[in-house]
Design a protein that fits this description.
By secondary structure, this protein is an alpha/beta fold. The chain is built from eight helices and ten strands. Helix content is about 40%, strand content about 20%. A ten-stranded mixed β-sheet has the order 3-2-1-4-5-10-9-6-7-8, with helices on both faces. Helix 3 runs parallel beside helix 4 and helix 5 runs parallel beside helix 6.
């Protein structure tokens, strides 16, 4: 795989470096840092003076960025793969997405910089924008990564399953992973009409979803994963988060539901709720 490790010097950025320990050797690993150099905010300042201040600040930030990339490179796991360092000036999210497009990357790895409960909670604006615009899978690391053996994979339909299988066929992980496939049927209100026919219908739907998950699990087992499926009824985001906690999942692997164009600026209510409340890193595939 071609992987981009985007770093900004935050604690979660270093945790993202540590997360590479659990991924397979990269065909190409790009260590990427973006300098978002602020313009002088003094309207009455002479243009020449403002330009001089900007150049001085840019040079200082560039030197800091180069030191950061050197430090990150020294911390890479032994099997990380051949790495190169890239430093650019610009908007971080747009620069990361552009780099992924240029390199035809398979995976972006980055840390989440929390902005507090009012703004983006666990996921900062940069990581959220990268998630919605990136052309490839994106791993967001929101805290210490202690292991990566248990994956929770929520699925919503056949297209979601096909995208998940395509990504997992890349063999992105270093070790064998245990995958729990999950489909959540939204509750109606009331949950189900209280009669025998409705009960039979709900049971039939759950059985069909179980058969669907079993089929996907069989495909994953054929390519080396331990996999089984769970179909249930409830509020999707709530059930996903509960399952992740109960199973002590090391990673939530989920799709973007194939969103395109302007709708990609919102990942959807379920994805949004999971991303902002997850107890573990999230890897979004496409």
């Amino acid at each position: 795989m071609k992987t981009i490790l985007a770093v900004d010097g935050s604690d979660n950025s270093y945790e993202a470096v540590h997360a590479l320990k659990y991924f397979a050797r990269a065909e190409q690993l790009t260590l990427f840092h973006v300098l978002d150099v602020p313009k002088p905010a003094y309207p009455m300042m002479m243009p020449e003076a403002a330009e001089e201040i900007y150049k001085t600040l840019e040079q200082s930030m560039r030197e800091d960025g180069e030191r950061l990339l050197d430090r990150i490179q020294s911390l890479l796991p032994p099997h990380a793969g051949p790495s190169t360092k890239q430093l650019r000036i610009g908007s971080p999210a747009e620069a990361i997405v552009s780099m992924a497009e240029e390199q035809k990357a398979d995976l972006i790895v980055m840390g989440a910089r929390g902005l507090g409960p009012v703004k983006e909670r666990l996921f900062g604006s940069v990581s959220h924008r990268v998630l919605t615009l990136a052309p490839c899978a994106t791993l967001i690391v929101n805290g210490p990564v202690k292991a990566m053996k248990e994956i929770l994979l929520p699925l919503q339909g056949q297209s979601d399953a096909e995208a998940a299988v395509r990504f997992l066929q890349l063999k992105p992980f270093h070790d064998t992973m245990k995958v729990t496939l999950l489909t959540v049927l939204p509750e109606t209100a009331p949950p189900w009409p209280n009669d025998a026919a409705a009960a039979a219908a709900s049971t039939e739907i759950l059985e069909k979803q179980t058969d669907f998950l079993n089929g996907v699990a069989e495909r994953l087992r054929a390519i080396g994963y331990q996999a089984h499926g769970v179909a249930t009824v409830g509020i999707p985001a709530t059930i996903i988060l509960q399952q992740a906690t109960t199973l002590r999942s090391d990673l939530i692997l989920m799709g973007t539901r194939g969103r395109q164009g302007i709708t990609r600026f919102m990942l959807g209510s379920v994805s949004h709720a999971v991303l902002h409340n997850t107890p573990c890193p999230v890897l979004v595939f496409r």
